[in-house]
Amino acid sequence: MTAVDERGVAEFLARFEPPDGLKVELLRGEIVMMASPDLVHNLIVLLTERQIPLDRWYPLQTQDVDVLDEASEPVPDLVVVARDVLPSSGRLLPCPLITMAVEVVSKTSVYRDYALKRSVYAAGKVPAYLVIDPIMGQCVLLTKPEGKGEAADYRVQHIAKFGEAMPLDILGVELDTSEFGTYPDVRPHRYP
User: Fold this and answer.
1) 189 contacts: CB under 8 Å, gap ≥ 6
2) Is 99 left (phi over 0), alpha (psi -120 to 50) or beta?
3) pLDDT at site 71
4) Rounded distance, CA 39 to CA 42, Å?
5) pLDDT value at residue 28
6) Cα–chain center distance at 35
7) How far apart are CA 95 and CA 187, in angstroms?
8) Residue 4's pLDDT is what?
9) Which helix (H) or strand (E) holds 135?
10) Pairing mode, if any, of strands 153-161 and 173-176?
């Protein structure tokens, strides 16, 4: 995709109003539309958000993210931003302001969350990327991003099963996962 094409897609996406019940994001030049999430997914986002101390952080749901040098505008389930760096307005939140991105895996987002977005957030130098997986009943915390473009990745990975505490040192908290639910009757996958 050329730079002109990427800019045109980004401009289209900025004006596009998706139908009710759909979420839209731009991932490496491709527009991805998804159905509204499952109740299990929404409860996990809520329980995670409530554990982030508001005196220091703002946990924001469905905030469009600007990944510099990428044809990507992902919409994480949750982004965590230090209160003192949050701009006063704007649709796109620049990656350098984000401390942690959170994605809750859905039945159809396994590859996007574990592979594509892992690379996109690492390319954007997001310091921490938390994948919460109700299919496998685990959380995967990725830290120390390195590299550029599609070769970008995180050097450190920590996995905690649901029921175990997930240390989020970057935020100064331990995430309690004991109330996180799982999707019934969903076939396990092979990630991470």
Assistant:
1) 110, 135, 136
2) alpha
3) 86
4) 5
5) 76
6) 16
7) 33
8) 43
9) none
10) unpaired
pLDDT of residue 134: 98
Report the C-alpha gap between 99 and 50 in whole angstroms. 17
Low-confidence ranges of the chain (pLDDT < 50): 1-4
- Name the amino acid, one letter, at 100: M
Q: Determine the Cα–Cα distance for residues 29 and 5; give it in Å rounded to an integer.
A: 9
- The predicted pLDDT at position 25 comes to 67
Residue 73, beta-bridge partner list: 26
DSSP secondary-structure letter at 117? H
The pLDDT assigned to 26 comes to: 80
Query: Are β-strands 92-94 and 165-168 bridged in parallel, bridged antiparallel, or unpaired?
Result: unpaired
**CA dist 64 → 25, 36, 67, 80, 93 (Å):** 8, 16, 10, 12, 6
Which helix (DSSP H) or strand (DSSP E) does residue 111 occupy? helix 110-111
pLDDT number for residue 21: 62
Nearest to 179 by CA among 41, 44, 53, 77: 44
For residue 182, give both structure tokens: 């799982």
pTM here?
Answer: 0.85
DSSP-based three-state secondary structure for 100: strand
Q: Are 45 and 61 in contact (CB under 8 A)?
A: yes
